[in-house]
Design a protein that fits this description.
5-stranded mixed beta sheet; Gyrase A, domain 2; Nucleotidyltransferase, domain 5; alpha+beta; 19 strands; about 500 residues
């Protein structure tokens, strides 16, 4: 790899297999460095879920080592079933507690009947009816996410994000198959193991998403293909009936096969029989023609989902919707560990400085004593005493100054609030909407944080305030001011005041 290039690792886990893609990004564009596919031992996964995290961790560690992949930060696909992903329209009278509203919507789904799911959501901007904002919501079992993180930890991999496989696939296909299709609808099907996920894009924006597990057809390739055609046809029929502004000949159908159950050739035959020339099928052998990846003659094919996962860290343009399923407590632990490591390194530097400073002081004392002895030989008794007193005063002042500096530095590193502030700032980062940015953070009165910045809409400001109020480091948050930004047209300036929660008597000190 060339000097200055950035590398990124994507790890896709599904139905007893591991797919790995290592990408690099530099002046020549995005390049495929490594592509690996490996089969897991029987019993590691069961029904699409991780049954043995320890064995999975060892398998991933072995795959990376054998293939010479040293990257330890990776974007990982969510290996869990069932998973709910849906688009939720917010009512015009937006609820006060957004998280509670999403939780109520999820509980309506039979997937989590009687269970308390783990969920994440993000804004999608205006869509559907005029003025209605939308949320993209993903929900699954909390324990299944923890099993995935446990396996990654045992493999020595640090997950940068945990993402839905279909979102990674969409990112990989976006430039060639979705963007700039303003005169046509784009229906994208993603076959990942036994799961078919269908996404309808209208004018480049995600409008519909639905997942169907076709595991009952896993042993029947022809039946699997026919069932996929039926599900895609149902989506097309819905849009033909409900949406009358797009003609049938202005619709493109793309199906990505990232599965070992059926071949791309069989799927293409089935879909073209059902939809004619509107349908096209792609797979890992088409990686260079359907993604921005520059062709590498040494690698003929690569798993598209793993490539899309790796693209997340490289900042490749794609779908605006972005969900990270790493639980907040895991992010907080990671942030705290990072700050502890930084603190330990700083402490080592300070200790080295103190040792060097002590040596300098001792050397100065020896030098001064030698000079005093020499002075004694050349001065009268009165002059020698006066000079000794001055030297002693100077040395006492230097020693006092160094002791004060040492005590001050020690006080900083004994303060537990270093890790507390790591969590506070990390929480603010996590809940900041994509349509809003922060220009100023100020701490006042020992318990308040003032956040100022600009946003694209008033609603995103209030959503931000709501999410801040739910953060565990915050007792409350309120929007205290919103004004049009007269310097930049279309932006709204805002100020939000946050009250920090009482952390069991901990004193917050931002200085």
């Amino acid at each position: 790899m060339r000097f200055g290039s950035k590398t990124s690792l994507g790890i896709d886990i599904f139905d007893g297999h591991i797919h790995v893609a290592l990408l690099s990004s530099g002046k020549s564009g995005v390049q495929l460095v490594k592509s690996v596919q490996a089969e897991l031992d029987e019993g590691v996964m069961e029904s699409g879920n991780i049954k043995d995290p320890a064995s999975l961790g060892r398998a991933i560690k072995k795959v990376l080592k054998v293939n010479g992949i040293r990257n330890r930060k990776a974007v990982v696909s969510l290996a869990a079933k069932p998973v709910l992903c849906q688009i939720v329209d917010l009512p015009e009278d937006m609820p006060g507690n957004l998280s509670q509203f999403v939780r109520a919507e999820i509980k309506h789904s039979p997937v989590f009947s009687g269970k308390e799911p783990y969920y994440e959501f993000c804004g999608m901007g205006a869509g559907g009816a005029a003025g209605v904002e939308r949320l993209f919501v993903v929900a699954t079992d909390h324990e299944k996410v923890n099993n995935l993180l446990k396996a990654m930890g045992l493999a020595g991999v640090e997950p940068v994000a945990v993402e839905l496989p279909v979102m990674a696939a969409i990112r990989a296909l976006h430039a060639e198959k979705i963007s700039d299709r303003y005169d046509a609808d784009a229906l994208v099907g993603h076959i990942h193991g036994t799961v078919l996920t269908m996404c309808m894009f209208r004018k480049g924006e995600l409008d519909f998403i639905r997942s169907v597990d076709l595991g009952d057809k896993a042993d029947d390739a022809n039946g699997f293909c026919d069932r996929c055609a039926e599900e895609l046809g149902a989506v097309i029929q819905f849009y033909d009936v409900e949406v009358d502004d797009v003609a049938a000949n202005k619709r493109e159908i793309t199906v990505l096969v990232d599965s070992l159950i059926v071949s791309a050739e069989d799927m293409e035959f089935s879909l073209q029989k059902a939809f004619g020339g509107l349908a096209s099928v792609c797979s890992g052998s088409d990686v260079y023609s359907i993604t921005p990846v520059v062709e590498n003659e040494a690698i003929a094919a690569a798993p598209i989902t793993a490539v899309g996962l790796a693209m997340r860290q490289l900042g490749v343009a794609g779908l605006k919707v972005s969900i990270d399923l790493i639980p907040p407590e895991a992010e907080e632990t990671k942030a705290t560990k990072k700050f502890v490591l930084i603190t330990a390194n700083l402490a080592a530097v300070v200790l080295l400085f103190m040792i060097v400073a002590g040596g300098v002081v001792r050397a100065q004392l020896v030098k001064t004593q030698a000079a005093m002895e020499e002075r004694k030989k050349n001065t009268t008794e009165g002059e020698g005493i006066e000079h000794l007193l001055k030297q002693q005063y100077t040395m006492n002042s230097q020693i006092t100054h160094l002791k004060e500096k040492r005590a001050s530095v020690a006080g900083v590193f004994e303060d537990d609030n270093i890790s507390l502030w790591a969590g506070i700032l990390d929480e603010i980062r996590q809940v900041t909407p994509k349509t809003l940015y922060i220009t100023r953070l100020a701490f006042a009165d020992g318990s308040k944080i003032l956040i100022e910045g600009n946003a694209l809409s008033f609603k995103s400001i209030h959503i931000f305030g709501e999410l801040l109020g739910q953060a565990k480091f915050m007792e409350s948050a309120r929007v205290i001011e919103t004004n049009k930004n007269y310097d930049v047209e279309g932006l709204v300036a805002y100020s939000i005041e946050c009250i920090l929660a009482d952390r069991k008597g901990a004193t917050v000190n931002a200085e």
